[in-house]
Design brief:
- The protein is mainly alpha-helical and 190 residues long.
- It is built from four helices and no strands.
- It has one domain.
Length: 190
């Protein structure tokens, strides 16, 4: 059912000529609006604004503490990073020193090994020279005895008589003095 006066154009003109309550404010309505506004404002000021202010202060303190904690954590992290870098630098220095000492020890052992090897070779050469000298002297001694024995036998066969021991010594000494055994010991041809 249609509301009376709204669909009728003549009633709309009449309402416009009398004025609307929005266009013509009433003094009573304004006073009540101001009273309600001030009462609401006082209630908000006494109850809500302090609670909101406390909540904002608490939030601000919490944020400031978080920022301070984050700053302390960052400083501690930087300190730990600096300590880590210092320890790493020390570890690298120690590693370099260990490698350097190991190289020096290896070089020292190598040079000691060479020196010891050269000493052993020199000792072996000296021993070989002594053995050769000893063998040469034994061979010369054996050769002298052989020459002496051969000389005595040859003389006995040529003279067909047995020589006395003194004659044998004299004859051997003469034969040996004629031979130069020094050339045999040095290996030079005679």
């Amino acid at each position: 059912m249609p509301i009376a006066g709204l669909h009728n154009p003549t009633s709309a003109v009449l309402a416009a000529s009398e004025g609307s309550f929005l266009i013509k404010p009433g003094i009573g309505l304004m006073i009540w609006t101001l009273v309600v506004f001030f009462v609401t404002f006082l209630l908000l000021k006494r109850i809500a604004f302090p609670a909101i202010s406390r909540a904002l202060d608490k939030r601000q303190k919490s944020i400031e503490e978080s920022i301070d904690t984050a700053e302390r954590t960052r400083q501690e992290a930087e300190k730990l990073l600096a300590e880590y870098r210092e320890r790493l630098r020390e570890a690298r220095t120690q590693a370099d020193e260990i490698v350097h000492r190991a190289r020096q020890a290896a070089e020292s052992h190598e040079s000691e090994g060479r020196e010891r090897g050269q000493e052993l070779i020199a000792e072996a050469q000296k021993r070989a020279e002594r053995d050769i000298q000893s063998a040469t002297e034994r061979a010369l001694s054996d050769l002298r005895r052989e020459v002496a024995d051969l000389t005595v036998m040859a003389t006995e066969k040529v003279t067909r008589k047995t020589l006395t021991e003194a004659d044998q010594h004299r004859l051997v000494e003469e034969a040996l003095s004629e031979l130069d055994f020094s050339e045999l010991s040095t290996g030079a041809p005679s």
